[in-house]
Amino acid sequence: MKMKPCWKKEKPIELERKIKSNDSAYNESFNYANNYICTSKYTWYTFLPKNLFEQFQRIANSYFLGLLILQLIPPISSLTPVTTIVPLAVVLTITALKDAIDDIQRHRSDNRVNNRLSSVLRNGQLVEERWHKVEVGDIIKMENNQFVAADLLLLSTSEPNSLCYIETAELDGETNLKVRQALPETAEMGNDIGELSKFDGELTCEAPNNRLNKYEGTLKWKGEAYSVDNDKILLRGCVLRNTMWCYGLVVFAGQDTKLMMNCGESMFKRTNIDRLMNVLIIRIVIALCCLCLICTVAFGIWESTTGFDFQLYLPWEDYIPGTSLGTTSGTKEAGATVLALMVFFSYVIILNTVVPISLYVSVEVIRFVNSWWINWDRKMHHPQSDTPARARTTTLNEELGQIEYIFSDKTGTLTQNIMTFNKCSINGKMYGDPYDPDGNPMEICDRTKVDFSGNHMYEESFEFHDVRLLKAVQNKDPHADEFFRVLALCHTVMSEEKDGKLEYQAQSPDEAALVSAARNFGFVFKTRTPTTITIEVNGVEEIYELLCILDFNNVRKRMSVIVKKDDKIMLMCKGADTTVYAHLDKNCGDIKELTTSHLNEFAHIGLRTLCLATKEIDSNYYNEWKKKHHRASTSMVNRDEMLDEVFEEIEQNLTLIGATAIEDKLQDGVPQTIANLALADIKIWVLTGDKQETAINIGYSCKLLTEEMEEVFVVDGESKEQVAKQLQNAKDMMSGHSSVEVVSYAGTATPMQNGNSTEEFGGYALVINGHSLVFALHKDMEQLLLETGCLCKAVICCRVTPLQKALVVDLVKVNKKSITLAIGDGANDVSMIKTAHIGVGISGQEGMQAVLASDFSLAQFRYLERLLLCHGRWSYVRMCIFLRYFFYKNFTFTFCHFWFAFFCGFSAQTLYDPFFISLYNLCYTSMPVLVIGIFEQDVNDIYSIKYPKLYAPGLSNLLFNKKVFLHSVFEGVVSSLLLFFIPYGAFNMGVDPTGHDVADFHTYGVTVASILIPVVTFRLAIDTQFWSVFNPIMTFGSIIFYFCSIFFLYSDIFGNNWLITTTYTGAARHTMATANFWFSLVLGNVVLLLPVVAYRFYKQDTAPTLTDRVRLRTKLSKSKSKSRDLGLKLSRASFNRSSKHGSIRSGYAFAHQEGFGQLITSGSIMRANRPLDGATPIRQNSAGNGTKTKLSDGNLVMNSSPKNNIPSSSENNVELVGYTVRS
Questions:
Q1: Does Nucleotide-binding show up as a keyword for this record (predicted)?
Q2: Cα–Cα distance, 7 to 171 (Å, whole number)
Q3: 244 touches 158 (CB < 8 A)
Q4: Contact at 8 Å (CB) between 953 and 681?
Q5: Neighbouring C-beta atoms of residue 1124, cutoff 10 Å
Q6: If you count DSSP H runs as helices and E runs as strands, how many of each does the chain have, helices first?
Q7: Which of 587, 788, 957, 995 falls 20 to 30 Å from 94 in CA-CA distance?
Q8: Exposed/middle/buried for residue 1209 (C-beta within 10 Å: 0-12, 13-18, 19+)
Q9: From CA 918, how far away is CA 898, in angstroms rounded?
């Protein structure tokens, strides 16, 4: 089978797709993509031209290529081309090797995926085929726990009613199972290979697109047309779960699958420093041309007035007009002009060392080693999954030290998508915190765990720390009994037995946690049919008749079941407090007040809450209501609205039972990480596909949203006008309450905020829904969205598509000119990961699509703190010191040529020996600067995290910018001036004791070079703040190596041989034998270095930076001295602050979808019943260790502990009077 190459040119735009099953000839006529995927950039035959083309897009490489061409012209070059050829070749080769290694890894990853095996129906038989040979129109068989090979139309499954279960973790990071159902007509084919081989359905569907949650198509088969939607589609990247087998028709393959369409194009990323370097190099080249032009004009004047008359000693070439050789006629002015033009290019070659090619060699080496520091960091290694941090690119390290905006996914990135039952309120009494027998609160620990071993169906992984609730159940407390019966009956969970163990399949992790809690307390949901629910209460089986399920939706925010037992009809309801409270009986006032107080406590510590209520229904009333329900459910017009009215009618006068509080377990360290990154002035935006309530709740849990915030603006308009009005109102309100905090790098802050302190001002947050974001991202409104969002401390975008995530990132990236970072774990995050300047993938159980598209990969979100505040900042600091020093030393080195031009008639004569010019950047000064670029640490990792304000210089480009660059240039020019004229004054008119001149051209050049090397080396040592064992070795070793090498190169043995000839033979020995040399060496170092040292001391004493202060504290800590008053008032923020407004938000969040109730009551989702007697306990990953609050053992109110700063009872009573809900 012929494989289509990944580089094939783009096909015409596809408007719709037509597919015939088992008809390869028909499908091939449309030239659909096969299942081969290619995420790599190169092939073996495109690597060299494509890579060179990319490398020469870097201005510096093109510049050096032009210099090389000039050096190949003998009349204008005084330097050998080897000085440019070798460094340029090394740079191109190192970069090419690095790019090749990166691309080879992508090829290997592609090959692993492309060579997976799948069972494909070919010629009436199932054959094993590799994934890359699967084509559109093929029928594939998949078995349990297999990855889906391509986007498939589900045809038949092993499960009843043609259902199958899939896990979409690799697509959206969610680990809860989702249900797909085949058409009943195709499901009849079952596992019959013969029938499947005869299947000749024609599918007309949408063209390939990146919409993960939408699919539209029509299947024509046997003269009938059937609608096909997303519920009948299995997407590539999903995993088949709890389904023995299924068959599917390939509709999209390879690059056309929705998974790959969401991956986007690989972008060539450059760092902010790279972009600045391109600008600086252009300006350096312009300045260089100006210097060369000055030398050219001066040379032309000198040749016209003086040089023409000295052709006896310095003859012009025979092709120059007016030459004394008489070979070419012309005037001396014409000859001087031609020579001046040649000298222009000669000086271009000589002065090009202001930007040597070795700069880029060193940059690549530093970046490569810094990326390995990330790979080797054991503190970013996740031991549970044995996953280290990985730098998947070596070109973006210093960019990590300049991140201003972080865009994060929620599920799988901030959270583990694991729910745990932590607390509850039953009949006005709160449970969940441990107490000793005397009623005193206890710290949560292993010995406070409740022992559930008396229940043979308990789960070993379940944890609860309040034994009072278990005792209430054991004592048959009627309120606790009713509470857990509601949890065991009011849900849409399915059960099954595997290996003698009872397992639950929940449509949402919330329901799984609640049903699991009921199970462990002795109310075990065992099985269900379309008309019954069977539970086991303390070992006794009870069967309830299921009369009706009042299904959940996002408007109702609740669900109910109506069950019957012993001729008693009960309605059981669970949902958001706002909706349940609105339907309570008026006699529930007291318990409502107590439960509200508990809900506030739960919400304050970030728990997700639901209220439970019941109602006994008269049988006659129910029969009448059932008729209304039947009419509404069978109506063809406004069915949903009619059902809502019927549900509303019966869900009245409910009796409040209590409330549940479950924890959506955050990944370890997420709140601390977000808080510390916020202290570093990094803005965090959460872009999630979850609904609004869930996202807000997690926002509070992870401290992205806080109770201290002045307002949380919710933008949920259904029209463009509504969205614009909501955004404008939010912007006006925030603009009216200006908050300005002037923060200097010295660590001081001056609050200016309408007379209030910054501690009192909590800032604002913005929450915007996906449908509102569609309008907000329009061209005429996106600027309003950006301005409003940037006024907020936190932004949460809910129900967003992968494309919207990328658009939001691009909006900030383009308009704010800020460095952005996107972090996620699923395929739906790939587009924003590739759009941002830096993409970080979370590797783990949620799949590898985000990691494969990322620049850096981490095991958990908490490691982002260390990646940015330590490695990112260190890389930025190292690169800035390196660049400042590199430009300083090369301007110092190069401008000596310029000053020498005034003494050599501007003839392009070099001051230094060509060997020295070639080895200056390659050997003499390269190692010390490489060491500082690799090992430098202004402060250690502990203090880097402890004082996040140290990150501020990177946000403002303080350490290397145009101003800093000009300062380095100025210092280099001044240093070169002193470096040139100190030896000039020492040797001018100097004679030795015998009366001979001590100065000549060679002696002078060696002297200047010998002062230059120690000066620039010790100058770097002054800026070194972290001395490793390598720093002194390279510092003093470079100086020693220089002096040894010039003795060797200028010796009689080496200086004149058949391979190398030099005119400097004996120059080193002669120069160093004079007192003038040693006087110049000492004086030059003192004059050039002493002012720098004095300035450093002055700055640290009068205006120390935050880094200086932290380093002083480090030294004092090491010496065990007391740091009494260092001005270090920056510390990590407290994560449990009392709210000045009170906890008035709702903790409701329920990750549930509409439609499961209908599946259950219709029997579509049912399996065959299997006995569960003797089932043994199973393990579920539901252990929780959420934040615990110390509360009193009373029924009325709660006293806060100082540790958690929970409002006291008096505060709660006051707040309850005006209780409102901010949703």
A1: yes
A2: 25
A3: yes
A4: no
A5: 6
A6: 41, 35
A7: 957
A8: middle
A9: 18
Active site amino acids: 409
Secondary structure of residue 416 in the 3-state scheme: strand
Helix (H) or strand (E) holding 230: none
Q: Is 439 exposed, middle or buried (0-12, 13-18, 19+ CB in 10 A)?
A: exposed
* Three-state secondary structure call for residue 1133: coil
Q: What is the DSSP string of 903-917?
A: TTTT----SS-HHHH
Average pLDDT taken over every residue of the chain: 81
What residue ranges in 499-602 does DSSP mark as E strands?
Answer: 501-505, 523-528, 532-537, 540-550, 558-565, 568-575
Q: Which helix (H) or strand (E) is 494 found in, with range? A: strand 494-498
End-to-end CA distance of the chain: 57
Q: How many CB atoms lie within 10 A of CB 494?
A: 24
Residue 649 and residue 556 in contact, taking contact as beta carbons nearer than 8 Å: no
pLDDT tens per residue across span 644-698: 899 999 999 999 999 999 888 888 889 899 989 989 999 999 998 777 777 888 8
Q: What average pLDDT score do residues 525-549 get?
A: 90
The residue to which tokens 């998974």 are assigned: 259
Tell me the CA distances in angstroms from 1184 to 748, 1190, 1193, one per residue in order. Answer: 41, 17, 22
Q: Which residues pair with 167 in a beta bridge?
A: 177, 239
- Sequence letter at residue 629: H
Residue 829, annotated ligand binder? yes
410 is in an annotated binding site: yes
Q: What is the pTM of this model?
A: 0.76
1145 is in an annotated binding site: no
Q: Single out the residue of 596, 737, 621 nearest to residue 1144, CA to CA.
A: 596
Amino acid at the residue 996:
H
What's the 3-state SS for 107-140? HHHHHHHHCCEEEEEECCEEEEEEHHHCCCCCEE
3-state secondary structure of 610: strand
User: Which segment of 593-602, 957-966, 1193-1202 scores lowest on mean pLDDT?
Assistant: 1193-1202
- Strand 749-752 and strand 764-768: the pairing is unpaired
Chain position carrying tokens 């579509």: 1164
Q: Identify which of 482, 481, 447, 490 has the alpha carbon closest to the alpha carbon of residue 465.
A: 447
Q: Residue 1176's pLDDT band (boundaries 50, 70, 90)?
A: very low
Q: Within a 13 Å sphere around the CA of 626, how many CA atoms are in the beta-carbon half?
A: 13
| 82-114 helix and 47-55 helix, angle to the nearest 10 degrees | 120
With contact defined as beta carbons under 8 Å apart, do 824 and 857 qualify?
Answer: no
Which pairs from 894-898 meet CB under 8 Å and 24+ separation? 894/351, 894/353, 894/354, 894/976, 895/972, 895/973, 895/976, 895/977, 895/980, 896/976, 896/979, 896/980, 896/1008, 896/1012, 897/350, 897/351, 898/291, 898/295, 898/351, 898/976
Encoding tokens for residue 494? 């399915």
Of 910, 940, 959, which Cα lies nearest the Cα of 1105? 959
Write b or e for each residue in 382-417: b if 16 or more Cβ atoms lie within 10 A of its Cβ, otherwise e.
Answer: beeeebbbbbbbbbbbbbbbbbbbbbbbbbbbbbbb
1137 half-sphere exposure, CB direction, 13 A CA radius: 18
Is 994 labelled as part of a ligand binding site? no
574 marked ligand binding residue: yes
Sign of the CA dihedral 1163, 1166, 1169, 1175?
negative
Pairing of strands 202-206, 16-20: antiparallel
Whole-angstrom distance, CA of residue 760 vs CA of residue 765: 16
Instruction: For residue 828, say whether it is annotated as part of any ligand binding site.
Output: yes
With beta carbons less than 8 A apart as the criterion, state whether 192 and 186 touch: no
Q: How many CB atoms lie within 10 A of CB 1006?
A: 25
Token representation of residue 535:
């539970």
Q: For residue 778, count other CB atoms closer than 10 A to its CB.
A: 13
Tokens, residue 298: 């001066």
274 is in an annotated binding site: no
Joined together, the tokens standing for residue 1038 give 């470079």
